[in-house]
Structures are given as C-alpha cells and as structure tokens.
Amino acid sequence: MKRVLPPLNALRAFEAAGRLGSFKEAAAELNVTQGAVSQHVRLLEEWLGAALFERHNRRVLLTPAAKAYLAEVGPLFEQLSQATARYGFPEPISRTLSVNAPATFTLRWLVPRLAQFRAEHPDVDVKVETSNEPVESVEQTFDVIIRGGPDTFYGYSMRLFLSEERLPVCSPALLLRLPLRTPGDMRQHTFLHTSSLPRLWPDWLARVGIPALKPAATLTFDHFYLTLQAAIDGIGIAMGPTALVADDLAAGRLVAPFDGPRLPSRSYCTYVADGKSDDELVVLFRSWLERAGMGSRTETAN
Predict the structure, then answer these.
(1) Which residues belong to the signal peptide in this entry (predicted)?
(2) I need a surface site. Which of 50, 131, 143, 292 has the fewest CB within 10 A?
(3) 139-167 pLDDT, tens per residue?
(4) Considering only CA atoms, which of 153, 166, 298 is closest in space to residue 237?
(5) Gap between the Cα atoms of 279 and 94, Å rounded
(6) DSSP code at position 178
(7) CA 117, CA 293: separation in Å to the nearest integer?
C-alpha cells in the first residue's frame, strides 16, 4: 500500500513551531529564516487543507486539530533522532554554494528571492559575493557566476535564466506633481543616469521620435542601484530594467508612465566552470534560478 506522506521539510517546520510556540524560535533552531518557517507551514496547511496555527502578534497558537496532530508527529521526530544516534550515523554535513553576481542584480532581484530557495532547500548554505568583473577575470573559484549574456567563455557552460527590457520608471508621487501625458512632457523632469550606461536615455528618446528633447535637469550616479533608488525617492525618471523593477512596480513604489517603446537589454545568465557543471548543488541552484526567472517574466508581462 502506498504511503501518503506530507512534505517532510514542511512537517519539520510545523513540529518545531508547534513545540516552541514561535516561528522565530523555530527558525533559530532549524537554522533557517523566519520567512522560510512561515512558508513551510503554509505549504503544509495547503497540503492538509486546514489551518494549523492562529497568529497572535509574536506568538502562534495551535488549532485543536493541529495540537492533536503534533502530539503524534512530535514523538516520531524524537524516535528518528534517537535511532540515527543509536546506529552511529554521522550528522549530515551542510554544503555551501558560492555565488558571484552583480551588485544591483543581487540587491534588487536575487536577495528578495533567496528566502524561497532557503525554504525549499534549508540544508544548503548560500554565500553571495558581488562584483562586475568579466567572467574570465574572476580570480576566486565560485560555484556559479551570474553575468549578462548570452556570452561564450572557454571552460564555462552558460545558461540563460532571466530576460529583461528597459523603459522609463518613476515614483507615483512624482507624477502627481508633474504629470506625464506624452513623452514630450518629460522636458519638465529630471533624467536619472548611470555613468556606465550613457546611451539609455538618448536611445529611448530617439525611439519615440524626440531625440533633441532636453530635460529640466540631469543627475548621474556611478552605481545603477543608486539610480533606481533615486527614482523611488521621487528625484527623477530612470530607465528601469523590467526584471529589476518588477517588485517595485507590483508594490506601487514605481510606475511606468509609458508602456513603450522598450529598449532591448542583455539577459542574465549563469556561467559555471566545466568541472562543476554536474555538481548536485549547482544543478539545483541553476534550476531554481530558471524557475524564478520564468516567474519574473510572467509578473512583468502582467
């Protein structure tokens, strides 16, 4: 007879949270984020088709059915722990996945999604370092390097996981002060530039047929994440990459006054040294990035 088992990582999070009466304390015990515990519990609730906790500020209370469930599930984890110790099996060694990625991409796309990866794979530690060096110039050995592409480098396999375009974005508050009904109205605004991407605004203005338009002012930053933050703060209008501003558009921190035209942009790709391409964690992380990238494309399209 086939066993019907709930998601075991989700069950583990439920047991710890129920026993301790706190998602925060459960996260500390399991060495994951509080958000990961919450997501696992939600997954188990969806699987069971019933609520397990009543949320009360910083504490959580088990529902009557969940309390009875925990009374049976809890001892099973203790028995499993004792059996493992009794037969002398070593504790599983967590592995660390090292990732090198551009700072703006890491800040605005990767970090907000890493909690989901940790929720799905709590036994994998991720170490992220940021740089913009070309792939072939990265001196330290990393499991996964994320850069624009697609490009070809000797000794590396490449896989694309996230595409994007660029279009003007600004804060809703800025539009209230200075409405944008047509692209010509942009002459009243401040254009936000990034020093490494000087052609974005001229190329977009040429696309809309007003290449000679002069804005009221310009402001240039040396890092792209500063340019986007200035747009969120209502200082001016930036040429936003759709993938990296999707969360801000969805949350209403930014708006796109014009849906087009959109400038083409390089995609994000993973580059992995040939000797690491078949590594279990590398395959796992690459597949997760591709699923997350597909989700981002769907959100942007909507």
Answers:
(1) none
(2) 50
(3) 778 999 999 989 999 999 999 999 999 99
(4) 166
(5) 15
(6) S
(7) 13
| CATH 3.40.190.10 domain position(s) in the chain | 95-164+268-301, 165-264
DSSP 3-state assignment of 98?
A: strand
* Token digits of residue 61: 């209370």
pLDDT, tens digit, 9 for 90 and up, residues 128-144: 999 999 998 887 789 99
Sheet containing 263-264: which strands, arranged edge to edge?
A: 217-221, 190-194, 237-241, 165-169, 263-264
C-alpha distances (whole Å) from 158 to each of 92, 111, 126, 151, 243 are 31, 22, 20, 8, 19
Q: What is the pTM of this model?
A: 0.66
* CB within 8 Å of 135: residues ≥ 6 apart: 145, 147, 151, 153, 156, 271
Kindly give, in sequence order, each residue whose CB lies less than 8 Å from that of residue 148, ignoring residues fewer than 6 positions away: 266, 267, 268, 269
Domain 165-264 fold is: D-Maltodextrin-Binding Protein; domain 2 (3.40.190)
Contact criterion met (CB below 8 Å) for 252 and 176:
no
C-alpha separations of 242 from 166, 202, 254 in Å: 6, 18, 11
Copy the structure tokens of residue 105: 């991409």
How far apart, in whole angstroms, are the C-alpha atoms of residue 236 and residue 169?
A: 9
- Statement: 8-86 belongs to CATH 3.40.50.1110: no
